[in-house]
Specification:
mainly beta, 49% strand
Length: 128
């Protein structure tokens, strides 16, 4: 079975940093575009960052661009999201998602409906 397990969330003060991890199993990780999404209470799930399966091409949401870095290591079957300069607006459950064999190996989708597998989420809470 496919499993995506997020970790690294927690409580952090505004201005602080967190490094989220997503460990994948049950699929060929290197064939997958990987994405991070987040969902705050009462809001829709929104795109945060994504990374392609070839050449690790990255995309970022405007709200997170410049403050965050997505990266992957196919040998470890892991994708990370490094977030800096966190604010209370970043408070949400963060989800890892995988899209096997996306049509463009050099791109990663930014729409959640284009991802096939999802992790359980990890809570990020940023205090003022």
């Amino acid at each position: 079975q496919v499993q995506l397990v997020e970790s690294g969330g927690g409580l952090v003060q505004a201005g602080g940093s967190l490094r989220l991890s997503c460990a994948a199993s049950g699929l060929t990780f290197s064939s997958c575009a990987m994405g991070w999404f987040r969902q705050a209470p009462g809001k829709e799930r929104e795109f945060v960052a994504a990374i392609s399966r070839s050449f690790a091409m990255t995309s970022y949401a405007d709200a997170i661009k410049g403050r965050s870095t997505i990266s992957r290591d196919n040998a470890q079957n892991t994708v990370w999201l490094q977030m800096n300069s966190l604010s209370p607006d970043d408070t949400a459950v963060y989800y890892c998602a995988a899209r096997p064999t996306y049509s463009n190996a050099y791109e990663a989708p930014t729409k959640p409906d284009l991802y096939d597998y999802w992790g359980q989420g990890t809570q990020v809470t940023v205090s003022s």
